[in-house]
Amino acid sequence: MLLRQRIGASFAGAWLIGNAETLVVGITDAAQADAVRSAGAKPLLVTHSEQRLNAIKAVLDGASSKATRQVAGWYVDGASNSVVVIAHTLAAGEEFAAASGAEPEAIRVVVSNESPEPLYDVRGGDAYYINNRIRCSIGFSVVGGFVTAGHCGSAGSTTAGHNNVSQGTVQGSSFPGNDYGWVRVNSSWTPRGVVNNYAGGTVAVAGSQEASIGASVCRSGSTTGWRCGTIQAKNQTVNYAAGPVYGMTRTSACAEGGDSGGSFISGNHAQGVTSGGSGNCTSGGTTFFQPVNEILSVYRLTLVTSGGGGGSTFSLVGAGSSKCIDAASASQADGTMLIIYTCHGGTNQRWTQTAADELRIYNNTKCMDAGASQQGTQVTINSCNGSNSQKWTLNANGTISNVQSARCLDVNGGSTANNAAVIVWSCHGGSNQVWSRQP
Q: Within its chain, how far is the Cα of 122 from the centroid?
């Protein structure tokens, strides 16, 4: 910033006010006011220079070991011309400031319940642990979590990540017969549309188009890393000791214990999750994977792609009406009512689900919104604002429940007619509350 250089030691920070229309520049020397005005900014005479505030923050940084968990952090705030210490209580903040030895007159304690925690990425092929005992590998990120092998853990099992940080809970699992499951992760984990290539990088996941027999395929897992081969057969029945598993894809890529659940990918398209096999990665062997598209369909999950969010768009089709949830009159205005209407694939019927559990429409510019929590409230679209009234859970039984009210998407009166209103109602699982995602 040229103005900072021009003002020199008197500079005390710069910030915008008035809907970002006015630039304010703090100065400790009134003689610099004209220089600020000539640059088109508004001068503000303050006590402490930016250099001094940064020096005070550096003292706090050097004393960080004295900060208890009741102290959430500290930073230089130009607008208040102070170093802000964020703490759960005034006493905790003041005690830390005093223990640090920093100049107290420039320190301001702000009381907040902030408790920052590091956030971790969910990546295909990374290790995770079930009930603090069994190690498996992540398959692919989906909105809200990840898919993996069913034999890794039963519904209700808890998981921890590769770093042993609490991660989530198994929401559904099937083995034998099938070998698939999925884990819903907690707020410390963010699903990413990538697979660990165990060479210091990742491979982007662009979709889940099924590869043909003979196609090359690579597998990522926490025991043997990145291994490749070809697809040899599809729809194989694998007769495990626990019982047969049907519909497996056979490959020449090797795997070993702990690789279970990990990613099979062809190019940039997700193929499946590692189930089992024979042999090892020293002598070679055969490995089977559970196709990923079946898992997504069974649990009504949405693959997270490298672009983030929820990947491809889909229509929401009612089980009772065979009609789609539709933004009335193709309007994009806030407050537009949602109705059911004959499916036609238009943009006013195409949805995505984001990692924040929003259902978005019109190129992700508007969110499905339950508005109030009362029974029978009309569902609309509105500009996305992150509120719980705009967050939805796609349940395994086909219902879609609102996070704020816990009520389900419902067609008013059970009507199957075009233009029938979509509302929220107490969940009962009737056909007017059951929806399927259609590509």
A: 9
